[in-house]
Each structure stands twice: as structure tokens, then as C-alpha cells.
Write a structure and sequence with these properties.
The protein is an all-alpha fold. It contains six helices and no strands. The chain is globular and about 45 Å long.
Length: 101
């Protein structure tokens, strides 16, 4: 239940979450290319993208705090392989607002 939540723990988890996203943002900043591990799409991108897509699906606004990750998401979401694997119900329904803040 929400009232049983320990806000200290929630804030610690949020901090860790943002530290991880910052790390990924820095990977993109330090790469010689547009992808997580360089100039070409790789297994690293196949692993990271579904997590980012889930965040966006549930209302997290990547572009607000993580511009490189937001641009990376925008670039990958239009790949034919991503479109082919996109969950069908995601195409028919709007994003949720669970992570909007």
C-alpha cells in the first residue's frame, strides 16, 4: 500500500535510477558514434533499448533530463527491426503516466 512506503527508500532508489541513466547518457557522450558501443547497432543497443522504451511507455520523459538518451530513443524506435518487435498493444494505446515525474 502507498501509505506503507518508506519514502527514504523510494528516494534512494530514485537516486540510483538517475545515476544509472546518467551513466548511459555519458556512454553516448563518449562514443565515437550514435550507439551505445560505437558507430554501429550492437548487442548493447538491443539490451538497452527495451528498457528505455518501457520507461517512455510509462511516462518517463527522457528528453527532459537526458537529451542524448532521448535522441537515441528517437533514432532507434524508427528502426524496422524495432518496429517489427514493438508490442502490438503499444501501437494502439497511448503512453501511461506512471513515471511522469
Amino acid at each position: 500500500k502507498p501509505e506503507d512506503r518508506d519514502e527514504t527508500v523510494v528516494e534512494e532508489k530514485k537516486k540510483g535510477f538517475h545515476e544509472e541513466l546518467k551513466r548511459w547518457e555519458d556512454y553516448l557522450k563518449n562514443q565515437d558514434g550514435s550507439y551505445m558501443a560505437g558507430k554501429a547497432f550492437s548487442l548493447a543497443d538491443a539490451a538497452v533499448f527495451p528498457f528505455l522504451a518501457s520507461l517512455v511507455r510509462f511516462g518517463f520523459r527522457l528528453h527532459d533530463k537526458y537529451k542524448r538518451l532521448g535522441n537515441y530513443y528517437d533514432m532507434l524506435k524508427d528502426r524496422p527491426s524495432v518496429q517489427a518487435a514493438w508490442p502490438p498493444h503499444w501501437q494502439d494505446t497511448h503512453n501511461q503516466e506512471m513515471l511522469k515525474d
